[in-house]
Amino acid sequence: MIHYFQGVLQTNIKVRVMKEAKQWYTEILGLHVEKDYDSTVVLSFGGDNLGTLCLIEAGGEGFDCGSTYPVLRISEEYKDVLYKRLAEKGVQVEENPVHPSHFTFYDPDGNKLEAYCPGIYEEH
Prior knowledge:
Blueprint: E1 5-15, H1 18-28, E2 32-36, E3 40-44, E4 52-57, E5 69-74, H2 82-88, E6 92-93, E7 102-106, E8 112-116
Parallel strand pairs: 1-4, 5-8
Antiparallel strand pairs: 1-5, 2-3, 3-4, 6-7, 7-8
């Protein structure tokens, strides 16, 4: 059996106002800020391999609070071929992703999933 993914890397949560959301998740839920990119903040639970929550500021008109979706960790072995293989199997994949190892795709019911291989943006 082919193992394209190694598990859920993180769950993305769209928020209206990052400052308020970050404060709520850290002070109320006790999560820790791992990375802060202003409009995107990665939060951890404080342990190894427990996954993360990624807050994405997407406020304004048309804000969809029901757009939470998982990010699946692509295995190193398949990071360079998964996008093409899914497309070949008729899976609806994001057109022209910024990186072929970081893209969104959809299940048959239209549920959004994201695939990502950690470290790809740090590679030279």
